[in-house]
Amino acid sequence: MNIWNKSYFNTLDLPNEILLIIFNKLHMVDVLYSLVDITERFNQLIFNPLYIRNLDMTALTIKPFFDYAFSIDNQVLDKICETILPRIHHQVNELTVEQHSIEHILTVNYPQLSSLSLVDFEEKRFFQYLKSILFSFVHFS
Description:
The relative contact order is 0.11. The protein has a 3-stranded parallel beta sheet with strand order 1-4-5. A two-stranded antiparallel ribbon has the order 2-3. The protein has one domain (11-140). The chain is elongated, with a radius of gyration of 18 Å. By secondary structure, the protein is α/β, with parallel strands linked by helices. It has 7 helices and 5 strands, in the order H-H-H-H-E-E-E-H-E-H-E-H. It has helices at residues 16-25, 28-35, 40-46, 49-52, 74-88, 102-105, 123-140, and strands at residues 54-56, 60-62, 68-70, 94-98, 115-119. The longest helix has 18 residues, at 123-140.
């Protein structure tokens, strides 16, 4: 007797707590790109302030051997910046970005932002952005 023929597993049958555990095991960029607007329930879980407050916009970081962040695919980055960041920008407290995506991601205002982590920046570009950030802070304060 094969029990798989009588019972079908559906991810939507899982409780919210289990779905959040799964979401936390996935990379945030993948969750935002792939699961937002699939169902209203997924949106409620993903846009929960506790989940979205620490936004890691690096595609992948390999830490065991060396710290290296891979860039987000441009199509993925465009979708997130155009359709998702405007919906969540007011909930983000901590933001992690890498060199390739910073220009797109920082076009949105993050009023609750208290921490900005810059990952895998070339020294010259790092100082360029640091100067720009400090200038805008001093200019508008």
